[in-house]
Amino acid sequence: MSTLRFLLEHPIRARKVKEAVGSKCELCGKISNTDDLEVHTFIDPGKEQEMPAEELECFLLVLCQQCHEDLHDLAAEGRAEEILVRQREESVRKKIRAILGYSPRPYNPPDSDVEGAYKDACASKFGNLI
Fold this sequence. Notes:
The protein is mostly helical. The protein is built from six helices and two strands; from the N terminus they run H-H-E-E-H-H-H-H. It has helices spanning 3-9, 11-20, 65-73, 78-86, 90-101, 114-126; strands at residues 37-41, 60-64. A two-stranded antiparallel sheet has the order 1-2. The model has no long low-confidence stretch (mean pLDDT 80).
C-alpha cells in the first residue's frame, strides 16, 4: 500500500484533514459532514514514496462527493487541481502538513513482573492457593 493511500485511508487522519479545511469542499465551498467529504489525490503513482509525508499536502484536495465525481468524469488535468491547492490558506496548509507528518511515539510498556502480578491477584482473591 502506498504511503499516501495509508495516510488518507486512516479514518482519524482523513477526518482531521477534512476538518482542517473547515469541513467544506475546496471546489464548490459546500460545508458538509466529514463523512460526506472525500480526500482526492493527484500524484503520479510511486512518486509519493520519494517524498516526506508532510510534503504530500500539495497533492490532495478535500471535495464533496459530487465535485469528486465531476472531477473524475471531466478528467481534469493536474494543473487545475494544483491551482485549487495554491488557493488554500497557509494556515490550513500547515495544519494538513502537520497531520500528514504526524508519527506517534512508540509505545513502551512499563517493566512489570506479569507472573508476579498474576500470583498477587490470585492470592488476594482466592487466598494463598498458588
